[in-house]
Amino acid sequence: MGRLKHQTATANRTLQHNGKLNTLVGGAVRRSYRYDQAGNLIQTADQRSGVLDYVYDKLGRIESAVNKQSGSSEKFAFDPAHNILSDKVSDGLKDTKGLSEHLSDRHHISRTKGRNIGKGNRLEAYNGTEYTYDALGNMIYRQLPDGESQYFVYDTENQLIRTEIKKPAGNTEIWEYAYDPFGRRLSKERKDKLAWISTEPKRTHFVWDGTRLLQEYTYKGSYTYVYTDQDSYEPLAQVFDNAKDGKQYLSYFHNDQIGIPREMTDQYGNLLWYGEYTAWGRLKTDERVYKEVHQPFRLQNQYYDQETGLHYNFFRYYEPDAGRFVNQDPIGLLGGDNFYQFAPNVNVWVDYFGLIKEHGFGIFSEVQNKGSEIGNGIQRHHLNQSQTFPDFSRNDGEVIGLKGSAFKPGTPHNAAHFSLDNFYDKYRNTGKMPTVFRYNIALYKSLRSAGVGRIRSFVGVIRAMKEQFRNKIRPWNKLPNLPNRTTKRPGACNK
Fold this sequence. Notes:
Elements (H helix, E strand, L loop, with lengths): L5 E4 L4 E2 L5 E2 L6 E7 L5 E6 L3 E7 L5 E6 L4 E4 L23 H4 L22 E2 L2 E5 L5 E5 L5 E6 L5 E7 L5 E8 L5 E6 L12 E7 L2 E7 L2 E7 L7 E8 L5 E8 L5 E6 L4 E7 L5 E6 L14 E2 L6 E3 L2 E4 L4 E2 L23 E2 L7 E2 L13 E3 L2 E5 L16 E5 L8 H17 L7 H14 L4 H17 L25
Antiparallel strand pairs: 1-4, 2-3, 4-5, 5-6, 6-7, 7-8, 9-10, 10-11, 11-12, 12-13, 13-14, 14-15, 15-16, 16-17, 17-18, 18-19, 19-20, 20-21, 21-22, 22-23, 24-25, 25-26, 26-27, 28-29, 30-31, 31-32
């Protein structure tokens, strides 16, 4: 079945970063996994954390995670809409000092005694933490059990752009975030006055390779990431270019069965870092053998923000304490009935973009690819056009529903084809063939020209790329074929 069952990594006798001889007894990594007949992970045995047993309900939702050796346990219950239920539900919303300055309209907030789920599956309380949302379903306030208050501000695309964090000690941290048009986070920066006396980086810049984080850099230097495969989101290695000493350091990630980093070692196999996680992916043990190590990854394609405790998950932010997203799914019902749910569990499910859960490497399609007509005037539009990719299976290809006929001007379906035809025209008479990468950019523009939203268009490109990878087509390859024009130019007739 391809499931991971055993992991072992041994260390050599080498010098530590402080110059002392380092020998790791038993190796840096030793871990095993057991699964039930449904493929659910039911047990992990780790040389450091011990044996952890998992129990699931009939829907595959995690019910408990128990470590008998340490005595620690986590237990969960859910309502029919897959909302996690708290064992510490508050009787009412606390009147927090300063909240009224940020939240002028509280009429939408409701709380029923004995419940922690509000309208639209919005989590209002969970184990001592309280939440408030705006009219669009974005979490705009969170009060933690220790008294820390967090305020969140979003742009018109519902992307988090500012956070104000009021610490129990009285000081306030202010962070701002910036994104590119594709939703990729480009930077985060601390803006409050105390930022300049902190030794931690005040500004972090991010560089992307498609939808994967390629590099981040601060005043300390740059971190470059390598992944296990060219279409994978599991980190394999980290290259740190240290601005202080001008040297380069290579580290390796050791991931569990679902791609979560559990250990980091240097190039000789010496342990640098190891961590333990809760059942929903929050790092609860952060053990740094080498104190300068940097390990920002959590669940696949998630980046940990220390200032808030949230995980940046491309199009949304994930809260690992409650195991759900902090705002509604941008693709709506395509991602599931519950707009905040991550998945039944994080042991066999992943969500690379904060849009839709996938089991292993499953591919989702918006519509079934059978015939051309869906209904209500909507037709299937192949993301990888059959004349451009003639060897792709038309029956199994990735499609999206667009209104109208591809040959009827004025319809969204025709607009998408017209946009692609204009892209092809640039190359038809030159004798040159564009790359697949250029096609994917043109595909995004064609979907936007058809009236498809920014996020859904981007998801469409991701789906097209996955189909290309399945057929061993890479972005740097030339297009297999340049088709004839299928739409009419203004004032001209089609051949």
